[in-house]
Write a structure and sequence with these properties.
The complex is a heterodimer of chains A (176) and B (90).
Chain A: H1 3-8, H2 12-34, H3 37-53, H4 64-83, H5 91-94, H6 105-116, H7 120-131, H8 136-143, H9 147-172
Helix pairs in contact in A: 2-3, 2-4, 3-4, 4-7, 6-9, 7-9, 8-9
Chain B: H1 8-22, H2 38-58, H3 63-78, H4 82-89
The chains are: A mainly alpha (176), B mainly alpha (90).
Chain lengths: 176, 90
């Protein structure tokens, strides 16, 4: 019996092996969404807990990596929903040393605030598409939605962000 | 300045530029997992096992229920004539 079949039938050793093979990928994906290492660790554990809990639903001839990414995206989305009004993007990751030195803390605060007010499903696609520049196809597969819906959500997120950030965009002289 | 004849793509590109100046994409070193998460997951799964066992223990049938069931079964075997009467009442 191969690893995925053993996992689906509830073999704990197979689950541990899959965890060790995929934990970095799952963590990296969640990190791209939440941009906070402590939160990403918690959500990675939560993702694998759900994977373990719903193992019977996994088809052994399926793609474990794609399945785990979908669960990870749902876990991250749940976190964004819960934290919408509580947690800001962490300061240390908002402006690492590679950031444009001309960017002021006021600009960063305004952007953080604008992101915080986005509905979770828009914040998810905006972070992945506009900041991390992930391909729409990859976002669609992970969020279990169509590419067209990803485009619609990016468009709406842009509209909402633009509404809040337009004074900044004029001030910073971004091309129009 | 912002023109009235902007397209969605213009909006998107302009905003992307502003965001990336202030929220640059995470690099490989930011995305590195710094520790093995298996011990934390294992601990959570072990806790779940303990919680799963608890309801099973609470569902254990007390000895006197078994005794009562045995008594009823013995009565039916010794006095089979009561079976039609019980069926009639049910």
């Amino acid at each position: 019996m191969d690893l995925l079949q053993r996992f689906a039938s509830g073999d704990p050793a197979a689950f541990e092996e899959l965890f060790r093979q995929h934990q970095k990928q799952v963590y990296t994906w969640i990190m791209r969404i939440v941009r906070d290492s402590a939160v990403a660790e918690d959500l990675t554990v939560e993702t694998f807990w759900r994977i373990h809990r719903f193992r019977a639903q996994f088809k052994p001839d399926g793609n474990f990596s794609a399945w785990s990414h979908r669960i990870a995206t749902n876990v991250a989305l749940d976190h964004l929903r819960k934290s919408r009004r509580e947690v800001e993007l962490p300061e240390n990751l908002v402006a690492p040393a590679t950031a444009d030195p001309a960017a002021t803390s006021e600009t960063r605060d305004r952007i953080r605030e604008a992101f915080r007010h986005l509905p979770a499903k828009y914040r998810l696609v905006a972070t992945l598409a506009l900041i991390q520049e992930e391909p729409y196809e990859k976002i669609a597969a992970a969020a279990d939605i169509s590419v067209s819906l990803v485009k619609v959500r990016v468009f709406r997120a842009v509209r909402l962000l633009r509404k809040q950030l337009s004074p900044l965009m004029e001030k910073t002289g971004a091309p129009s | 300045m912002i023109h009235k004849t902007r397209t969605g793509n213009d909006d998107s590109e302009e905003l992307k530029q502003l965001l990336q100046q202030n929220l640059p994409p995470l690099q490989d070193h930011d995305l590195e997992l710094r520790r093995d998460l298996w011990p934390r997951l294992k601990q959570r799964l072990d806790q779940e096992d303990v919680h799963d066992l608890a309801p099973r223990q609470s569902l254990r049938i007390p000895w006197f229920d078994w005794a009562l069931a045995a008594l009823a079964a013995a009565a039916l075997i010794l006095f089979p004539g009561v079976i039609p009467a019980l069926l009639y009442h049910f």
